[in-house]
Structure prediction request, 411 residues.
Amino acid sequence: MGGGGRDAAPERRPPPLVPPPDGEADAESAETATESGGETPGAPGPSSSAPWPGPPPLPPTSCGAPPVPHLGPGGAYGGGPPSLGGCQAPFAPPDPTWSQPMAAPGGDEGGAVAGLALDLDLELDPEPDPGELEAARAAIRAIDPHELLRQDEEGDTILHVLCARGLRVPARAVAEAFAQWGQLELREHRGKTPLLVAAAAAAPGVVRDLLGLGADPNGTDRDGRSVLHVAAQLGLPRVLQAVMSSGVPVNLESRNFEGHTPLHCAVLSHNASVRGGGIPPPAPHERLRCVQILLDMGADWGSQDVRSGWSVLHLAVGEGNLTLTRLLLRRPGAQRLVNVTAHGNTPLHVAAALRGSPHQDGLIRLLLACGADPQVRNLEHELPHALLPHGPHGEQLRLLLRSRPRTRPRK
Prediction:
């Protein structure tokens, strides 16, 4: 920032981008860094075989908003170097983690669900052209590390910008430099790392590259959302497939600040797309793919929302979402989870309490066929049939529920 009567700070000269010949140090750069009193970022510098040394000492000053830089000599940003203090998040080994995908279940439950398992082999982006990648690396090596690491007033680096635009080749070249300096977890003002930005931009190739370079798959933004939460919420199955194909262990049961796992987010996203009301693309079948991929990765579909206690089956039934309910009840262990209660209510209670849903009859019959117990009482001591609407249709379903024997013993 400029100041009227303040003395100008001594000019900083960037370090050389390649080691000096014969191992001689750049005495002038070293002297400038020493006099400035700057502190070296926490990440260790690269090895002697690296194309450039680690980033030089950077003082804790603000920086101006950068444009997208031209990846050529001389850099692209003006102003002083950015502050890196407090930008990195330590990695914690996730538990539980995904390691091997579960085989998609067989069977034919009709319609979109029946063909879903055949449609999950999503094509990922091809590997970048080696010549283009090498040219991008050469361009990056010509840029001052100060400029690459600079953050604008919203915390974005050039890597965030490239990830947001899905520009895989330059993003990978820049990410390789960031990884070398241990700076892949730099966060913008909403707490998003480059990985989270790439996920939200529907850039599966960039996501896979970042994970391969060591980006933390369990890092979260200020709302507690991991890369899985972002992809599930936005309905991006190719991003989930990129995470799965990377082989990097990832926590499937992490919860955002609303208490939702990625699977909860995928179910809520599909519910919203089925409900309509101006929900933007992707289409419902893309969002349904997200549910299937997370299930195949081993997500616990019996986990319950922290606030409401609802499982994903409660959420699907409560929306009158017959397609999604069918998908969930095809999973192994459905009979064990179909009677899970949330504040005393089973999914059958939820189905009986639906109003105005054309799928109420189908949902109730499907739940009963999968072992739902019509004799379970909720906390108000109500049986499911007591929650049915009045009228001929409700009476017909009430007779159906009353005629069904108990399907499990009381505990």
Remarks:
- The mean pLDDT is 76.
- The domain at 307-411 is CATH 1.25.40.20 (Serine Threonine Protein Phosphatase 5, Tetratricopeptide repeat).
- Residues 262-275 form the longest helix (14 residues).
